[in-house]
Amino acid sequence: MDKLDRNFDRRDYGNLVHRTIELFNRQYGAQMPQNAKDELLRIGAEQFEQAHVPTEVRVFWWPKFEQTTDWLLKVEQQYRVGIKEIYNEVEGQMKLPLSDGREFIITGKADRIDVTDSGAINIIDYKTGSSGYPNSQKDFKLGYEPQLPVEALIALNGGYKDLSVFSNIGSLQFWKLGSATMALNEEDSTNAV
Length: 193
Hints:
The protein is built from five helices and six strands, in the order H-H-H-E-E-E-H-H-E-E-E. It is α+β, with helices and mostly antiparallel strands.
């Protein structure tokens, strides 16, 4: 009974959005369908239904989800030019030998790894809230948000299942869904759409 009566919070919303994007990308890959908005909304509605989001929560979350969908499609139309493959929710690990013979294992789960036409990869992390989103490239360079560099290190060492070893990272990007993208290895750090 606890599960039926539980409170839904921002994490639940973020998980619904992540899962919707993951299912959409798995179904369509790098090629956006003509009816992309309809498909994202359909998949989102299914996810809301499966999660048993109560009506009193849904009336606030669904309009936000629709706005996020519009924003995402606008970004994706520009971004997906030159993207060959999209991998979602990719788990990986890298082992570092210690001086005493043991190993230190670093694990990570990338929201998305895209292979470009040139063979480089872009690693994207989705954010639905403000936590974990760097305020600037300076914050990133100071190491306050090490997630994407660690994921890149795992990729460079062939640590992701079903992916080759990549020798070239194209970009590391935070997508604050609905408001901004930040490519962490470019001079212009915030590109609001």
